[in-house]
Amino acid sequence: MHEFDDLMEANRAFAESFDLGGFDGKAHAGIAIVTCMDSRIDPLRMLGLEHGDAKIFRNPGGRVTPQALEALVLGVHLLGVERILVVPHTRCAMASASEAELRVKVGASAGVDASWQSFGVVTDQLEQLREDVVKVRTHPLIGDRATVGGFLYDVDTGLLSQHA
Ligand SMILES: [Zn+2]
Q: Where are the membrane-spanning stretches (predicted)?
């Protein structure tokens, strides 16, 4: 039961100087971001945003999945979202290996068959980004209620470039 002790201790220190109370759950800058789980991405800081400013949905690859769309619908209608950024990134594992390669790697790590596991690998990252942005723009509950952009984040320079 001690596997999380370091983090629990850090949390107590965090709580001692906690100054983030009193917020509602709205996106105070009106921003929602769909991006990758990659640890090189700091979604708020890369956009000059702060705590409370944005709704953030992360998954492998920064894909517009059904769950991402659920989050965006809630964001647009209940949480103050007016602009949506879909942000995959350079050197993403989900765009640089094939589904088969990932299954082999994960299977080797797990020591059991992983051929049944899907990972949603992307073959053409920019084409996929454009398709994902269309999914948001054409969603019947989002449509033109929010402005949607597709961006690629360069993990080596910190720069975003817009592609959709
Ligand atoms: Zn990634």
A: none
